[in-house]
Amino acid sequence: TRAAAAANAAAARGGYSPPPGPSADWLRIEGCDVLLPPPTEPVRGIVHFVGGALVGLFPRQAYGPLLEAVADAGYAVVATPDPQLVGFDHGEAARAVAWKYAAAAAVLRRDYGVSDVALPVFGLGHSLGAKVLLLAGADAN
């Protein structure tokens, strides 16, 4: 993992420096791109991320450095790409994103011990993604 690589490199050089190449160990859970903090970091909360129209379909590629910095700060990142982000029915996009997030959160609780019930959950969106998160949060279902 990236934490182990960083620890090995730091030990070899006598100090910390990030490992070369991609620093993130992304997971694909229930259609979401998920990034957990390094094992040396306690999980401080969960960030539910939704990107903008079109690029929101590829959060790792379009927003990778930002989301990796969030994870490195101790937050589990759940990025929810969905084809609805290119349509005009933003209410449907909000429902689709909310369902995907809920499914991924259940797996995180069950398999990784990261609980969206016990930890704060923050929404982070870019452009249309911010609107979709707002609509999802306002939906009573």
Summarize the model shown.
Helix content is 43%, strand content 16%.
Shape designation: globular
Main beta-sheet strand count, sense and barrel state: 5 strands, mixed
Number of helices: 4
Please trace the helix and strand order, writing H or E for each element.
HEEEHEHEH
- Name the average pLDDT: 86
Describe the protein's architecture and organization:
By secondary structure, the chain is α/β, with parallel strands linked by helices. Helix content is 43%, strand content 16%. The radius of gyration is 16 Å and the shape is globular. The model is unreliable at 3-11 and 13-22 (pLDDT under 50).
What are the SSEs and their pairings?
Elements: H1 2-13, E1 27-29, E2 32-35, E3 45-50, H2 59-72, E4 75-79, H3 90-112, E5 121-125, H4 128-138
Parallel strand pairs: 3-4, 3-5
Antiparallel strand pairs: 1-2, 2-4
List descriptors.
single chain; alpha/beta; disordered N terminus
